Amino acid sequence: MELRHLKYFLMVAEELSFVRASEKLFISQPPLSRQIKELEDEIGTRLFNRNNKRVELTEAGKYFQKEVKEILLTLESVSQRTKKVGDNLNGEFRIGYISSTFSRHISDLIKYLSEEYPFVNFRLYEVPSIKQIVALEQGKLDLGILRGPLKSPKLMSELWFQDSYAIVFNKNSIKIKTENDVGQLSNERFIFYNKSYAPSYYETLLQICSKFGFAPQIVHESNNVSSILQLVKEGLGASILPTNSIKNNIYNELDFIELKSVKLFSDVLLSSPKSENSSITKNAIQFLKNLRISTFG
Question: HTH lysR-type domain spans which residues (predicted)?
Fold first, then answer.
């Protein structure tokens, strides 16, 4: 069994058509059919049921597809790590972050790492937490700064800091002074983070509103903190965001009230693949943890 057999199989499994698969693989159909037949003969079972009208995976084929995908993802991750070893720290180091955590602290991290490793190209990518987890598992990111929860046997993580939540609003259109006034916002419009990008975070915001006795009227959703704050700034609604993300992006038109009574926090995590053990990763995490001690308490 060769690697090309697996790649050919996955393409046919995805397209469920030998014609379309052969076109995408840039080979003619008869050789592709022979390769799949060789693979089935070697395994000793049929992977596809096929006739003149349709191609479909057998139950064995469905299982094989799932396992082969995992094998190829692992192989890609190994290849990435091998390249880094061969580059001898002359390659790239890729850091993912979520928009609500970007601040001068991450800028300070890049400055520090660039001075420590002058021959490494450091890349920053704004990626939602869910997608960061996948990218870290696949070796496409070396370090992730994301919000919990994180459940992956392939990743290790450390708590950077716990962020409280705060209500943020346009102070010219909403007149509240203390946390006790938040219940007055039951008739106000709200701008929330996109549910599909951060489902746990979205549910926490609903829980916070419930604690103040109302269900929010959500009129806008966004997957970016800056966009949410811009909408709030324009008077299109209030929002609930992690406190530090507001402090890092405050506008003259905005005010916020930290919601201390709800006793809910957002865990900001530093995560990396368990197989990633480079000095860059260790130093980056330690640098940010030191910032946590001095800045976030």
Answer: 1-58
Q: Taking the model in full, what pTM does it have?
A: 0.62
Q: Which two tokens stand for residue 217?
A: 């009227």
How do the pLDDT tens digits run along the chain, 297 residues long?
A: 788 888 898 999 998 988 898 888 889 989 989 989 988 999 999 999 888 778 999 999 899 999 988 888 888 877 776 665 555 455 789 999 987 776 678 889 999 999 988 888 899 998 888 889 999 999 899 999 998 889 899 999 999 998 899 999 999 999 999 999 999 999 999 999 888 777 788 899 999 999 999 999 999 998 788 889 999 999 999 999 998 888 877 788 999 999 999 989 989 999 999 877 788 999 999 999 988 655 554
37 closest CA partner among 12, 73, 66, 59 = 12
Q: What is the CATH T-level fold of the domain 3-82, as seen in this structure?
A: Arc Repressor Mutant, subunit A (1.10.10)
CA distance 177 to 179: 7
Q: Where are the beta strands (DSSP E) in 137-258?
A: 143-147, 155-163, 165-170, 189-193, 217-222, 239-242, 254-258
Report the CATH architecture of 88-161+267-296: 3-Layer(aba) Sandwich (3.40)
Instruction: Please check whether residue 143 is in contact with residue 242, taking contact to mean a CB–CB distance below 8 angstroms.
Output: no
